[in-house]
């Protein structure tokens, strides 16, 4: 493309809220075969809410929720905010937290008023040596509904299954349909539970799911997609997404996301509306056609 046609193209994109940080991306985008998207904060609003709390036999909801929420006051994960808010809404008093520990991609642990509390994904519980078999049916049922199940343990015993759900952005279904109409494959890359990811993918008509990816595993997931399907555009918002945004053939960051994600991207979707992705791809196709 000529510098002029790229200037015109990026100018039109800007009018649609799609900011090209690198002009070449307008050409590279045309060759994309697959659009891979992060789930939380990209496909979804990134503001989960606590939907279910299933105490294990011998445990009471309010007590366990109070302990778990106390630990989560120390975490910045969106899941943590959902749990703390739910506890506050119930008027629970949260105790003082000692020796807090966060294991990225797994969960969090701390001592709350002398009680050991651990909260996180099933892989965290397995890592800590718990047998989740008794609570697994409850967790699976919640995952099928597209909710993200977590486990809580208190004083060395599994105490509850907790589910959070993050609403899909209202513009996401239309964005995915438009990508399909352009002939692209759509993939999801997420750290979330496989059952949950599959349920959401089915709901949205997403073709490929890579789930339970550890925070440093997104680049590898992206390379796998590229090997099988071709040139990859990756869309993400989080700190964890920065390496994949840099590695992708074209990286598109959510404008309301983290600074690191934006700095690693070629393109910024100013409002976080994913319809900007098919719009930008259509524009890149039109721009290249015009100069031929
Ligand atoms: P994602 O952003 O896709 O949820 P993360 O890598 O941040 O991916 O976390 C992976 C999983 O680890 C979460 O889905 C959750 O099950 C668990 N986890 C992480 N942080 C916390 C936390 N503060 N409280 C409870 N669970 C957590
Ligand atoms: Mg995210």
TrEMBL record:
<protein>
    <recommendedName>
        <fullName>P-type Cu(+) transporter</fullName>
    </recommendedName>
</protein>
<comment type="similarity">
    <text>Belongs to the cation transport ATPase (P-type) (TC 3.A.3) family. Type IB subfamily.</text>
</comment>
């Amino acid at each position: 493309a000529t510098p002029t046609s790229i200037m015109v193209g990026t100018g039109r994109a800007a009018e649609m809220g799609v900011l090209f940080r690198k002009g070449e991306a307008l050409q590279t985008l045309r060759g994309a075969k697959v659009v891979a998207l992060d789930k939380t904060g990209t496909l979804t609003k990134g503001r989960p809410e606590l939907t279910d709390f299933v105490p294990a036999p011998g445990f009471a909801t309010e007590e366990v929720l109070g302990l778990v929420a106390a630990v989560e006051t120390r975490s910045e994960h969106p899941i943590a905010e959902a749990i703390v808010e739910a506890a506050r809404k119930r008027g629970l008093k949260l105790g003082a937290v000692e020796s807090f520990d966060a294991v990225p991609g797994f969960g969090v642990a701390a001592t709350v008023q002398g009680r050991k509390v651990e909260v996180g994904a099933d892989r965290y519980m397995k890592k800590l040596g718990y047998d989740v078999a008794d609570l697994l049916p409850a967790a699976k049922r919640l995952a099928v509904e597209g909710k993200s199940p977590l486990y809580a343990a208190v004083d060395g015993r599994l105490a509850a299954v907790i589910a959070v759900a993050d609403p899909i952005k209202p513009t996401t279904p239309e964005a995915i349909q438009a990508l399909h109409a352009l002939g692209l494959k759509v993939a999801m890359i997420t750290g979330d539970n496989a059952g949950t990811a599959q349920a959401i993918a089915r709901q949205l008509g997403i073709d490929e799911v890579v789930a339970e990816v550890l925070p440093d595993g997104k680049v590898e997931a992206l390379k796998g997609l590229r090997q099988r399907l071709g040139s990859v555009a990756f869309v993400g918002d989080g700190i964890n997404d920065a390496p994949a945004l840099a590695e992708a053939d074209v990286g598109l960051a959510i404008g309301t996301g983290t600074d690191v994600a934006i700095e690693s991207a070629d393109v910024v979707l100013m409002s976080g509306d994913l319809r900007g992705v098919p719009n930008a791809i259509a524009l890149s196709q039109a721009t290249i056609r015009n100069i031929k």
